[in-house]
Amino acid sequence: MRKGAFMQNTPRVWIIALCVAVSISGIAGYVQGRRAGSRDAGADRQPADTNPSNNSFHLAGRVWDSDGVPAAGQTLTFQGESLSAVTDSEGVFLLTDLSPGTYEIALYREDGTVQARQNISIHCAYGVPEVSFELLEGEYRLRLSADIRYLEIAIVMIEERISISTDEYSYATRGGRIRIPQGTFYAQENSVTTPAGNTFLSDGTIVVPGSKRADPSRLILSDDDEAPD
User: Fold this and answer.
1) Phi and psi (nearest 5°) for 138?
2) Angle, vertex CA 157, rays to CA 159 and CA 193, nearest 5
3) What is the pTM of this model?
């Protein structure tokens, strides 16, 4: 009687055992998945590089005298990196591949004498507002997102001091988004011209008119190389 009952209940026993095994396997897989997910989430939460070591950008703009006349034919230098540019007839300049750092900006007259100067510190980082200016203790502090490829500013000379407008600026990201006072545009959709007269083409090339004496325009290609002379 007992053996027969056991034989009759054998299929039910195997079914129960199989269910228990499947449940245990499922729980183990779930636990492993949670652990793996926790590791992945932790990796995603790791802080990004907040201080990129090599993140240069192009700085352009227009220089004005205090009476509103474009400062033409003057040399603008960023002392500390030996970068300089001569303003054109409209006071427009271009400095390529400017790196973060602390500089003294100096503006020289055609006779070589200093007309105005100003200290500025530039910091590029991920996870910060795209562009922010402030003037603290006589020094401009400029913070840029590491995604900024091009920045355009307005400079006014007031006596012997360089004044930078903290709200009149334009910029372009490496992804092709361009912000000018008229709004935000995408170069991939149509060409965009900045207040200084520089034009972004749909392929990412920047055309800077009047920035070279021998050639009426300069080209910065989409990969940020300059076109050969």
Assistant:
1) 80, 5
2) 170
3) 0.73
